[in-house]
Description:
Elements lengths: L1 E8 L2 E9 L4 H14 L12 H8 L1 H22 L5 E13 L3 E10 L12 E4 L6 H14 L2 E4 L9 E10 L2 E2 L5 E7 L9 H5 L7 E7 L9 E15 L5 H7 L5 H34 L7 H17 L5 H10 L4 H28 L6 H15 L3 H11 L2 H20 L1 E4 L18
Helix pairs in contact: 1-3, 2-3, 4-7, 6-7, 7-13, 8-10, 10-13, 11-12
Amino acid sequence: MKSTVEQLSPTRVKINVEVPFDELKPDFDRAYKKIAQQVRIPGFRPGKAPARVLEQRLGRGAVLEEVVNGAVPAKYAEIVSAGNVHPLGRPEIEITKIEDGDHLAFTAEVDVRPEIEMPAFSELTVSVEDIEVTDAEVDEQLDGLRSRFGTVVTVERPVQQGDFVTLDLLATVGGEEIAELAATDLSYRIGSGELIEGIDEALVGATQGDERVVHTVLAAGEHAGQQAEVTAKIQEVKERELPAPDDEFAQLASEFDTLAELRADLRARLGRVKALRQGSQARDEVLKALLAATEVALPEAIVNSEYESRKHEALHAFEHDMQRLGRWLEQQGHTMEQFDADLRQGARQTVKAHLVLDAIADAGGLSVTDGELSERIVYQAHRHGVSPNEYARKAHESGELSLLYADVRRGKALASVVHQATVTDASGNPVDVEALIDSVTPE
């Protein structure tokens, strides 16, 4: 087999291929066997008719068509496996010549990863937030722990932030009551932000028996994007009484004997959380700096595919109704043009990040171990609320396992860049990211 690669653009090539018929003997054998199983010829058992009889009965053209249909994808796969090209997406294949008994010729046009000139990773400099745990943050953690041991009691006073209220809800759109949005004796904590936008502010200051009306734009469901009027009636107001923050509480709520020891432990935990957050911020900032310093020619077909995927996901909440999405955007002060531009820009950034990180992974010879892939599967399974085995099975059946592998590999590539970059905190102190970055996946 002979093949040449013609560069059509920085992101697209045409592969010209010639295959001698001598190399196609296995393909002819498979074609004869397959055709023999599909036709019935008098005097021969199914699958036993010889090649010459099949050609006499069906014609040489039918055999050649079967050979080409099997051989061309296989020969293209051979070229890709040899590493001559790094394709992105599916090729456009055209048969250019079939010289029976001599050779088969075809071309394959496909998007490819462009050549990328990388910046010096050691010259990338980013800044992240300081790690500082304040007394107020420790107090907040302590109050959260106290609330777990608190008791809820009914009060006769106006609603305050943090109170628990029992509500009856009634919602209408255009004067028509929406049954799925109605609720009776709904328990809700003021300030949680888990109901509709604006209801917390409306309920603060109200008392038992009061009604408050809130106007909002529905974000999901059958009436997504439409203006709704929601009436909330307060049936009951409760507050949580917290135990005193003292040594006795520390002994009740933890393994520590004193409140001071408990506070010290909470401070240490907060410090570890902030350190991990700092590592995540370092990853994000280094990726931004890397992409800003790298010029990449983007294959538009791949960008369009990513754009369509993002658009499909965004429309899912509106049951793929563009008009409902448009109404919701209008209520949020945005236009469909802005929405579309943001989606396309996000798609371009994602494709650019993938191309750059894949190139870094290739240059560094990075691979993914079974343990690393299993760890990511367990993490994803937990996020989706299924068992790791179930998630792995579905990922394998849908072809997403290879995408998961690529994500882990890109995360390792980004981690390698973070380790080489200069990362300082807001105070100018160098940040040791070695203990913070393990395997990260770009957004």
